[in-house]
Amino acid sequence: DIHMTQSPSSLSASLGDRVTITCRASQSIRKYLNWYQQKPGKAPNLLIYGASNLQSGVPSRFSGSGSGTDFALTIGSLQPEDFASYFCQQSYSYPYTFGQGTKLEI
Amino acid sequence: QITLKESGPTLVKPTQTLTLTCTFSGFSLSTSGVGVGWIRQPPGKALEWLALIFWDGDKRYGPSLKNRLTITGDTSKNQAVLTLTNLDPVDTGTYYCVHRRWGYVDSGDHYPQSWFDAWGQGTRVTVSS
Question: Which of B48, B63, B90, B129 lies in the 20 to 30 Å Cα band around A94?
Answer without folding.
Answer: B90
